UniProtKB/TrEMBL annotation:
The chain crosses the membrane at residues 21-42. It comes from the Bacteria. Keywords: Membrane, Transmembrane, Transmembrane helix. This is POTRA domain-containing protein. It comes from Candidatus Wolfebacteria bacterium CG1_02_39_135.
Amino acid sequence: MQSDFYLDERQRKKRRRRLKLKIYGGIFLFFILAVGVAYLIVYSPFFQIKQITADGKEVDGKEIIEDLKNFFAGQSKITSFLGAGNILIWDNKKLAEFHKNPEIADLTIEKDYLERQIRINIRERERFGMWCLQAQTNADHTQTNAENEISPRESALSPRESAFCFWFDKNGVIFAEAPFVEGNLINNVDDFSGRSLKLGELVLAEKFFSNLLKIFEVLEKSDLGIKSLKLEKLEFQEIITESSPKIYFSLRIDPKFTLAAIESIKNLGLERIKYIDLRVENRVYYKLK
């Protein structure tokens, strides 16, 4: 009986030793694997980027690349340690947090792990028209700009020439300065409201801007050759053509009914009309000269 007891004890010790060896062996293998993976990620050229490309028409692709390098490397201590040259830290999901140049509508990243290349796809905003903040001249003929904001600038020329003009897209976002242009070749809004705007902001609230787009569409279909509009007081939510006869539109209502109204009045002879008032839905008012 005693010999059986010693035999069982020796077997238990052997099993414990084997279990310890398996545990220590597993820990050692895991450590070796972790070191290998860490070396592969940090020091191996396998994850080191060979080339980054970004093609832009109006924006500087090289500047975008540098901005994104700093952005991704600054996400955490780990990404900072890995560095901007590591392909793993370039994450499309993080781009929503990236502060883009106002001229850029969208950014996406394509990664080629085999070639170790990154391509930055830039979708730039398209010019729909010009938004001109008209000069608000003080008594001493000077203007003051709000800090970090776009405001009308000083000029000794005509009010139209003293405007600060900017491109805006079909979403109503102003994104770049525009040159002074006269004529009816480009959609244009002269803003006399006296407000300031920042690049990247909407020129109008979305519900009003969608109607503004439709007003430009109505004017194009009417063949009146009118592309310039005037916004006098923002609180009135109205916009006026700058040609003769003047046409008054409301930004609060869908202008789809106005095209038929304009066509009817054209038959009377526009030279006889002083103004056309389309500010009431499904109603048309006009005044003869």
